[in-house]
Amino acid sequence: MTILIAGGGTGGHLMPALALAEEIRRLRPDIEPVLVGALRGVEADLLPARPWRYHLLPSEPIYRRQWWRNVRWVTVLPRLLRAVGRVLDAERPAVVIGTGGYASAPVLWMAARRGIPIVLQEQNAYPGIATRRLAGRAAQIHLGFPEAERYLTVGAHTVVHAFGNPVARVTGRDRAAARRALGIPPDARVLFVFGGSQGARPLNDAVGAALDRGLLRGVTLLWGTGRGHEDAWTRFHEPPARIVRGFWDPIADAYAAADLVLARSGAMTVAELAAWGLPAVFVPLPTAAADHQTANARALVEAGAAVLLPERALSAERLDRELAGLLADPQALARMAGRAGERGRTNAGRYIVEAVLQLVAV
Hints:
CATH architecture of the largest domain: 3-Layer(aba) Sandwich
CATH topology of the largest domain: Rossmann fold
Structural class: alpha/beta
């Protein structure tokens, strides 16, 4: 028996899919999770190194601003639907779970048309278009933020849960071991910067400008520039004081080694930092739909676990003041870390999979 997990395009949609696959294997070894993603998504690079069978579809993103680029869907859609049909024919899944991204909606839509139960896992406080459009057909909807339910029109038999976002299991934060693995001294002040799998140009530019101006002195930097941006910043790669990578995968060593994180506030980033008990400075993406990244960040900001820094205020000097100030105050970081940990939902993946398994006949 198989369960398809469709999602990807970015790490924010792929990582919950991987976390759910791990929980399915742990709870029901007799059921095989099979991943479905997009040929042009981050999953094309990451899934070959993972222990799962997978399918990659010829899917394309839907462009909201450059709307004229969507004309390609005239030729993409027929090929995509044929590819989805072949996947469903080959796998005959008991359930299809969608975690968002441009590979998930076609699989969920076609599965629903065939009478296969579909489950939606929505990470954000403002749900994505696939969740909003397919909510009426879903057997279950699992929300990372309970506030998302107000935007959904669910079916008469749809069950909605808000267990939180599924994150990879945190087996123990061994800071010393992680720092040894990275060559970082045990007493270093470590900052982890990343903007998601695609990167965040404003964050990269601000960090680069700070380093060019001799700021962030005495800070050990772990920097995830995003896919396609690494070459622009490799001049700062000077291990162990500065380690620059396009994408940190696995990310566990960076999380374990860090004292503080500078990041966007995508839903999975917020969930992972809470699960790891990490203080953060969040720079929300200002163009996110319904400003949902700011909404995501507020949960930790209001809990005293994070600082909100609007992108319009982002500069090399402001970064230096915010980051160096926090890193120089271990007691403040410890308070923030404790409050982040209080908001962590490390068992969300298990609760979601236990609910999904109720849809499986045997």
